[in-house]
What we know:
Elements: E1 3-14, E2 17-28, E3 32-36, H1 43-51, E4 66-69, E5 76-78, H2 90-94, H3 100-114, H4 117-130, H5 133-145, H6 160-172, E6 178-182, H7 190-202, E7 206-210, H8 214-220, E8 223-228, E9 231-235, H9 239-273, H10 280-296, E10 319-328, E11 331-340, E12 346-350, H11 357-364, E13 372-377, E14 383-386, H12 399-404, E15 409-411, E16 417-419, H13 420-426, H14 431-434, H15 443-455, E17 461-465, H16 473-484, E18 489-493, H17 497-503, E19 506-512, E20 515-520, H18 523-542, E21 555-557, H19 573-602, H20 607-635
Parallel strand pairs: 3-7, 3-8, 5-6, 6-7, 12-18, 12-19, 14-17, 17-18
Antiparallel strand pairs: 1-2, 1-4, 8-9, 10-11, 10-13, 15-16, 19-20, 20-21
Helix pairs in contact: 3-4, 9-10, 19-20
Amino acid sequence: MATVLQAQKLTKTYGTKVLFENLDLNINEGEKVALIAPNGTGKSSLLKIIAGADTPDLNDNGESGTIQIFSSGGVAFLDQEPVFDNEKTLFEEVFSGGGEITRITAQYEKALISSDHSALERAINEMDRVKGWQFELKIKQILTSLKIESLDLKMGQLSGGQKKRVALAKMMIQDTGFIIMDEPTNHLDLEIIEFLEDYLKRSRVTLLMVTHDRYFLDRVCNKIIELESGKLYTYEGNYTYFLKKREERIENFNTETERARNLFRTELEWMRRMPQARTTKAKYRINAFYDLKERAGQRVNNDNIRINTASSRLGTKIINCKNVSHSFGPVVTIDEFTYNFTRGEKIGIVGINGVGKSTFLDVITGAIPATKGETEWGETVVFGYYRQTGLEFRAEDKVIDIVREIAETVTMSDGSTISVSQFLTKFLFPHSMHNMKVEKLSGGERRRLYLVTVLMKNPNFLILDEPTNDLDLMSINVLEEYLETFNGCVIIVSHDRYFLDKIAGHLFVFEGNGVIKDFVGKYSEYREYMKDRERIATKESKTGQSVENREPSDIKSGSNQKSGSNQKRKLSFKEQQELNTLEREIGELEKEKSSLEAALNSGTLTPEKLNVCSQRFSVILSELDSKGDRWLELSDI
């Protein structure tokens, strides 16, 4: 099997902290590798070094290490937080990466938009030369699947989720066989995550990535590399296999360490009794003693967060919502929502980005007023609101000072109190980090510190908006254990499907236009229901039957929608997006059709060019027919 990546003797330090030293890593063609490690141990740094976005440090021998990539087109890199030029258009950014075929395809797309006949003819010739038509089709499929439209928008106008999709598109259209991704699912809605998952499963590309999404990791990757204490451990299998083998490795390591400790005690006694005159044989045993001493002192750092804070008493009245509505001008975010929350409920919230999930959380907590309706809060409710944006820590703030601004002590689940210093230690912030400035913490460590500030207030109603972003997998596992035994209410907004399946007993599904529906069941069950619904809709649309107003018994509307058999149903968000895409594509095809008609009637084309244009003209007519039929079908709903 051909080698794609060969990295040797890589070293990286952060201040006085050594992240890794003399690290070796090899990846073969076709392998899909996930890198797993606790926060702050150098995952992102290692990816950036391999991708060429950062450089390794010199080790003790004055060597900087070597990286060799044996992949046509080099490497495509998706950074965890992509940085863009806000003045560039979306089109310019998407096509700014890649090689010659990407550049030529971009020129062809520009010529189509401009209706410049001479530029279009030159672009068509170039597309023929590089055989770019299949590549152009691939790009359009990617942009459509990622819901990327309005290519003339400036990057500064886009939301975080839109920018992440642009970064994905830019990475995916690059003509390279090696992809590196750092937390690719952050800021993506669930539909896009599932598309990316399917794309990478089918692709033959070689992949190295860091992700906290366990379904994504389990279904895409066939090799796990664990970075622990500056060393790499390799597991040939998916995430489920890794969990099993990691436990075996730790158990075996600790068994060997215990044997070394027992032998060390024997050798230590010998050292104490040994006479001053030392023979060569004795000196050999002495050297072996010090090697044994080092081995006996090793242990696997398998520490995890232990969350056992108390929660404030929660009465029978929690939050009662009656006909609650909210809108921003003509944009409706909540429409006639009625619901009474009960103790012990764990609710997941799902819906595409921008549909109003965060607004809903602000309304039910009273952070912003509803447009109409009534909301009553119980007197005992204490909110713990973990926001997606997190706290805006000042860079010069120290870790200990941040928590002391909230309280000096924290009440635990058994009623005892501990100092905030002890509480920080429970969250894997040792005393050596208490006086560390925030600017020196990793992204994951900052999120963990933010979680500390939320939980130390002893809330009984937790609202967690994307809590798994930037947390390492072990920390997420412990957070899940805590939430499973939490006696209060929990609302979770998350794109982590595994996390939702494990915690949420039912879902609030945001369908757009303020419509919120309650699905009783796990997220995986909801996705299966939606897939069945789409299959039924496709089948019945072919036979001319309608599926409007069909609701299963386990879904109840959170908004009082009016319905009637003689009314047209509203387009779903997906159908509306498809309709918008069809209108744009039909317009582009019409422009290209007009250009080809002019060229075919000009009488200036060579026989070869005439043949190419005729074939393309035939393809365009066929596409216009099929897309036109679908447009009429959607327009008539």
